[in-house]
Amino acid sequence: MEVLNGTDIPVIDLSLFPGSQNVDIKQLESEEFNKLRKACQELGFFLVINHGINPTLVQAVEGRIRDMFALPAEIKNRAIFPIFNAGYGPFEVHDVTKDTTPENMVFPWDHLLPNSVEEISARLWPQGNPAFCEELNAYRTQVRELSHRILRLLVWSLGVDISSQSASELFEKSYGNLRMNYYDKSTEKEMISKAHTDISCITILYQDDVGGLQIRTKQDKWIYTKPVPGSFVINIGDVLQMWSNGRYRSAQHRVVYGKSNKNRLSMAYFHDFLDEFEIRCPKEMIDKHHPQLYKVVVKGDIVEYLKKTGPNLYNPLHFKI
Prior knowledge:
The protein is of the alpha+beta class. The chain has helices at 31-42, 55-69, 73-76, 116-124, 130-157, 165-172, 238-243, 299-309, 315-318; strands spanning 3-7, 11-13, 45-49, 87-89, 92-93, 100-101, 103-107, 174-183, 191-192, 202-207, 213-216, 222-225, 232-236, 253-257, 264-273, 278-279, 297-298. It has nine helices and 17 strands. The strands form four sheets. It has an eight-stranded mixed sheet with strand order 2-3-13-10-15-8-7-4. It has a five-stranded mixed sheet with strand order 1-12-11-14-9, with no helix packed on it. A two-stranded antiparallel sheet has the order 5-6.
């Protein structure tokens, strides 16, 4: 499959969008809203700038997380939890496909693991690490607020009334998981993380300057994305593809790494939902040109499917009508 190098993806300037709960219909036809729609429809990825996340805090958290991954394996293993998608996960090479899962640490929102930042920190540093907890919780709060702001823009861009029940539940029944991924530069050969789509609603990704993120296009080509300082990468997840009746695209992606002079770090925040959240596309998304594509399911159905199949390239297709 062809890989295109250094491709720019759309950059969305959040300072150009309204910040209130209400939006004038004329703003929905603005150049920036049209640019946002096209990015979600065609690529499923875009960058945001002027997002409001404190850059000093981002740098501080990156330093804390690099220090965390530098801990000895026997210490990191203390943060392994018998809970799906929580705590420490070691580097893994998959036997059949030979692709990889990077070393990772997941800090779920508190309904899955109460006080997850403090609980994981206590296992790693029994003597205490209050600065780690304070900075990580502050970052998690700021990125959560950003996820709500971006999701409002996406709902507006689809022409759905944000006060409607179908739209409001996107916020009321949501939570967020924060996943840190660490890619070791020491490998002597090129490594590829498992290609997948995200089952979340949207993902907010901070990546360092190493690069390596690839996105699969509609034309079945892999494109590299250039890291842009001060930006976050946003991608559409499976839940939003299904909720939007396929209007917005959950794109497959992966990371190619190794042969670098620096370990790669990414921090992904997944705006997600409780297992009982019902994924039902709103009536505005269905018409004679856009018949309903997906069954009405709850988020727990997708999670159970993921547990059986592992990270999957085609999660939404399993739930097509």
